[in-house]
Amino acid sequence: MSYQAYLDNIEKQTGKTPQQIxxxxxxxxxxxxxxxTEIIVWLKTDFGLGHGHAAAMANVIRKGPVISDKHxxxxxxxxxxxxxxRLDGIDRR
Length: 93
Hints:
The chain is mainly α. Helices cover 51% and strands 0% of the residues. The protein contains four helices and no strands. Helix 3 (36-47) packs across helix 4.
């Protein structure tokens, strides 16, 4: 599954765009220096996310929307279109 697909599934499950979740995280004081575990626990508890989806979202909360180009342009199941993740929601594409 691509990184973007993880975020899209999180949106489908929660009804919130990744950006809305990021904004809520920042309102709670979660930033780049917050331990990932703390954010993951919050995402699992408040949004019912599984560990993998919570970890992916925690990474975006802490590090922003830029990802490695490792899978960009590849043909595998982890293929992403870009190194910049879309955070504005599925309907905005």
